[in-house]
Amino acid sequence: MSKKHTFLKIVVGIGVTLTTIHVINRVLNRLFTGGNHLKAENDDFYSWTNGQIYLKKTGTGKPLLLLHDLTTYGSSVEWERVVAQLAANHTVYEIDLPGCGRSDKKSLPYVSFFYVQLIQSVLSEVIGEKADIAATGAAAPILLSAANYDGSLIDKIIVINPYKLCSEGGALTKLDKFHKSLKELPIIGSFFYNMRYNRMRIESLMSNDLFYNPFNVSTELVEKFCEGAHLRYETGRYLMAAIDAGYMNVNDSMAVAKLQKEALIISGAALKNESAMASEYQALNHEMQHVVIEKSGMYPQIEEPEVFVEVVEKFLQGENVSETIFQEDEAEEYRKFEEEFADETENIDGDQDIKVVDDGEADEEVVEKAGEEA
Question: For residue 212, with 0-12 CB atoms within 10 Å meaning exposed, 13-18 middle and 19 or more buried, which class applies?
Answer without folding.
Answer: buried
